[in-house]
Amino acid sequence: MHEKTLAELSAGLQAGDFSSVELTRHYLDRIGRLDPQLNSFITVTADQALVQAEAADARIAAGEAGSLTGIPLAHKDIFCTEGIRTSCGSKMLENFVSPYDATVVANLADAGMVMLGKTNMDEFAMGSSNETSYYGPVRNPWNTECVPGGSSGGSAAAVAARLAPVATGTDTGGSIRQPAALTGITGLKPTYGRCSRYGMIAFASSLDQAGPMARTAEDAALLLGGMAGFDGRDSTSAERAVDDYVSGLDAPLQGLRVGLVREFMENDLDGAIAGSAEAVIAELRRQGAEIVEISLPNVHLSVSAYYVVAPAECSSNLSRFDGVRYGHRCENPHDLEDLYKRSRSEGFGVEVKRRIMIGTYALSAGFYDAYYIKAQKVRQLIAADFRAAFEQVDVIASPTAPGTAFRIGQKTDDPVSMYLQDIYTIAVNLAGLPGMSIPAPQVDGMPVGFQLIGNLFDEARLLNVAHRIQSETDWHRQTPEGV
Amino acid sequence: MQWETVIGLEIHTQLATNSKIFSGSPTAFGAEPNTQANLVDLAMPGVLPALNRRAVEFAVRFGRAIEAHVAERSVFERKNYFYPDLPKGYQISQAELPIVGRGHVEIVMDDGEVKTVGVTRAHLEEDAGKSLHEDFHGMTGIDLNRAGTPLLEIVSEPDMRSAKEAVAYARKIHQIVTYIGISDGNMQEGSFRCDANVSVRPKGQEELGTRTELKNINSFRFLERAINYEIERQIDLIEDGGRVVQETRLYDANKDETRSMRSKEEANDYRYFPDPDLLPVVIDQAFMDAVTADMPELPDVRRARFQAQYDLSPVDANILTATRATADYFEAVAEVSGDARIAANWVMGELAAALNKEGRDIEQSPVDAQALAGLLVRIRDNTISGKIAKQVFEAMWSGEGTADEVIEAKGLKQITDTGAIEALVDEVIAANPQQVDNYRNAEPEKRPKMIGFFVGQIMKKSQGKANPQQVNALLREKLGE
After folding, report:
1. Is residue B247 located within the same domain as residue B396?
2. Mind telling me how many Å the CA of A366 is from chain B's nearest CA?
3. Integer Cα distance of A96 and A125 in angstroms
4. Chain A positions in Cβ-Cβ contact with residue B50 (cut-off 8 Å)
5. Is-catalytic flag, A155?
6. Where are the domains of chain A?
7. Do B48 and A234 touch (CB under 8 A)?
8. Which residues of B touch A206 (CB under 8 A)?
9. Which of A3, A310, A413, A438 has its CA 20 to 30 A from that of B94?
10. Cα of A199 to nearest chain B Cα, Å
């Protein structure tokens, strides 16, 4: 049953081949057996899942089901879920039970989806390996000595190991696409503003975006359709109708113009990763796409600009975790200053503290213009580069990450090397564009991701291209051993 | 040495929106602690601000009222600092690009001198909550009802040269914000708070002296006192060879003094940056037009209109337009009673005295405009005399009912029946032969004064109800025989 895609499961539910309760029990059982090894879940919500599944079955029986009704899923633990602990991977929120549902969570619940639990993640989504989680690292189902990528590593590992058919993730600099690449699944970061950020614990507000993680482009399309939409509670959400992401999936790629970023292909790109990407490009060409080399002259500034903007916003966003109203509070504070200092020192991990300090510094009087203002200017330049590129091409292609999954502990003492995991993904967030990672041919038995970048609100086209590739290849059908 | 004082004011006006600036919580004053704080106000993880359109309209309205430049694009920024009553760890405010730019107001001093005071800017921001230090035994209680209440911070140029000018300016701003309906202006409840930047310099010197910022001033009277105290303190300090330290000082009304709260050296670096959760506020022509169409009459315009329309003196027009509530009250009384003259006299006379005696504002008058107009109508139609009307007014003030109800209940209807009045006149003439003789033998020019005795007697007998004109006419007729 767990080898079926969301689309197939949906058909099975409608046909009465199995019930949502049966399906949910099946996945809960798998989580119980396999997750102790992977640690992809922080919280499993079995009781609530079965209640939701029963309700979904009633809805299906009443003929009121949609394509997502009765389908189990996992939510990244960054999304607030009413009555359920929402930890954001941090000790700070170890005992935080959210009093409300994030809009994305509510949208999917309204569609009849069944929440299996909350997945592990880098603390406050800051990391590219899932090692910064207070709840321990997640292991990659393809090699449990390796990381699954991050920050949505728990969701990626859970989907790759078939512990959930689909999962939600969030992506600030690559946090959906990089783990999708490293675990061999399909992940999409939508255009900034496509999914509401309300109830998604903020890391870097101008970059954060929720998106689907699935095994196929078709499943990602179905899930995105349920997540996306305007939300009056998020001023930055787009007041724009949600496209039908499914109906155009099969459109032929004849004449599609695909841009290859010169700067990505020439700089230090690992030969094996390049070879893998070339195989996908060859498939695109075979289907009639036209391959065009393009240039993004300022893209090399992305990582530097990102590591000013994201920490600056995070330093302010995380100020609310002060030990006063909720979250970790130190024992016996002797005054206000002590309450703040110890609650935050004890509640946050080392990477979070590092970024708060970088961001505080970047926003300080005397440095603000040199760092924050300059980084925002770079951002404008990068966005302009993409605008120019999209006059020539329909989509842009590149590797998702510079390599395959690395070993747990390998990069923990080298933050810069860790930050470079997102070298191909970060520019997409800075420009607010949609980006997607799909499986490419593996290297040494480990998954590799291929990135597709679209113009603003062009998710349907990305999904179409990805689906057409997946219709003709089996790179996305590989299954890790033992699951 | 001759000293010159330089004063600039920062006024925080609470905007009279129904809900908070970035959340749907109500803004009403005085609720149980934390009952008007929702998830957004509590800064729960994941929540986001959504701007209250009404607050923007109010800010633009103010911009129009002071003939200021209204920014087509203004930006909310985060002012970062830690404090328990600031739930997010930052206040959303406007820094670099405020919604209202440079404008001005005119103030009139007691001697009639008119002075223009520049307004540097006005920007939108959210209020913080309240820290309650009493009743918690070594701990601090936090009430977040006020957190997120919309404020318009109005910053003046350092154009004022005395405490009196500062008060005149503050009163003018107060008059404007209440007139245009963007604030209730209630100073006791903190809806209108003045901080004063005060410095002194030798007369003739161009360069400004070091300033101090005075906070915690909740009335115009205290504003004047605090500034005067501070001017004296600074001059004494300098003349004794000291120097003024740039700092924030709290005004203590009980001791009538200011004292140091924190110096600039310990000031926070607020690390302002544009709030990524909020889009820039864009004001287009349609928005401006809509605000302009909704713009209530400004105080200066209304004063001029009152003079022309109701034939009032400049002094009376000024008094009757001092607050919007007074002007609304007067205008309602004038319209309903149909007599602006008598309406003006009563509002400035009997009503003002009664309000004054009890220290009430006109909004809290137990006799509302409709009720007072009802009374004046009865004077106009001769149901009661002006004198009896005062008695009726007192009863109305004590809640004894409408004018008609009081007149009816107390039997105060004026006696206009000629026969009844004639009987009273005859009775009084018969009872006072000596006075009648005196009257008849007196010089004609002394008679009008002497007739007062008889009128008094008759009014007394009629308990004030006899129509005075009829009494006078009949008396003259009968005594003159």
Report:
1. no
2. 10
3. 17
4. 232-235
5. no
6. 6-252+466-477
7. yes
8. 276
9. A310
10. 4
The whole model's pTM is what? 0.90
Angle between helices A103-110 and A217-227 (to 10 degrees): 110
B/e letters for B306-340, b = 16+ CB within 10 Å, e = fewer, are bbeebebeeebbebbbebbbbbbbbbbbbebbebb
Three-class SS of chain A: CCCCCHHHHHHHHHHCCCCHHHHHHHHHHHHHHHHHHHCCEEEECHHHHHHHHHHHHHHHHCCCCCCCCCCEEEEECCECECCEECCCCCHHHCCCECCCCCHHHHHHHHCCCEEEEEECCCHHHCCCCCCCCCCCCCCECCECCECCCCCCHHHHHHHHCCCCCEEEEEECCCCCHHHHHHHCCEEEECCCCCCCCCCECCCCCCCCEEEEEECCHHHHHHHHHHHCCCCCCCCCCCCCCCCCCCCCCCCCCCCCEEEEEHHHHHCCCCHHHHHHHHHHHHHHHHCCCEEEEECCCCHHHHHHHHHHHHHHHHHHHHHHCCCCCCCCCCCCCCCHHHHHHHHHHHHCCHHHHHHHHHHHHHHCCCCHHHHHHHHHHHHHHHHHHHHHHHHHCCEEEEECCCCCCCECCCCCCCHHHHHHHHCCCHHHHHHCCCEEEEEEEEECCEEEEEEEEECCCCHHHHHHHHHHHHHHCCHHHCCCCCC
Closest C-alpha among A351, A368, A366 to residue A312: A368
Q: What is the CATH classification number for the domain harbouring B449?
A: 1.10.10.410
Instruction: Indicate whether B308 and B269 sit together in one domain.
Output: no
Domain end point (choices B410, B433, B462): B410
Residue A230, exposed/middle/buried by CB under 10 A (0-12, 13-18, 19+)? Answer: middle
| A316 CB within 8 Å of a chain B CB | yes
pLDDT tens for the 483 residues of chain A, in order: 999 999 999 999 999 999 999 999 999 999 999 999 999 999 999 999 999 999 999 999 999 999 999 999 999 999 999 999 999 999 999 999 999 999 999 999 999 999 999 999 999 999 999 999 999 999 999 999 999 999 999 999 999 999 999 999 999 999 999 999 999 999 999 999 999 999 999 999 999 999 999 999 999 999 999 999 999 999 999 999 999 999 999 999 999 999 999 988 776 788 999 999 999 999 999 999 999 999 999 999 999 999 999 999 999 999 999 999 999 999 999 999 999 999 999 999 999 999 999 999 999 989 999 999 999 999 999 999 999 999 999 999 999 999 999 999 999 888 888 888 899 999 999 999 999 999 999 999 999 999 999 999 999 999 999 999 999 999 999 999 988
b/e burial code for range B181-194 (CB count within 10 A of at least 16 → b):
ebbbbbbeebbbbb
CATH number for the region A6-252+466-477 comes to 3.90.1300.10
Secondary structure class of B382 (helix, strand, coil): coil
Task: Compute the distance between CA of residue B156 and CA of residue A410 in angstroms, rounded to an integer.
Answer: 59
CA distance A229 to A236: 12
Whether residue A76 lies in the annotated active site: yes
Peptide bond into A152 cis (omega under 30): no
A175 flagged as catalytic: yes
Tracing tokens 């913080």 back to the chain, one arrives at B128
Residues of B in contact with A372 (CB under 8 A): 273
Number of domains in chain B: 3
CB contact under 8 A, B279 and A206: no
ipTM of this predicted complex?
Answer: 0.96
- A115-128 CB burial, b ≥16 within 10 A, e <16: bbbbbbbbbbbbbb
Candidates A229, A248, A29, A199; CA nearest to A99 is: A199
Q: Which domain holds residue B392?
A: 297-410
The length of chain B, given as a count of residues: 481
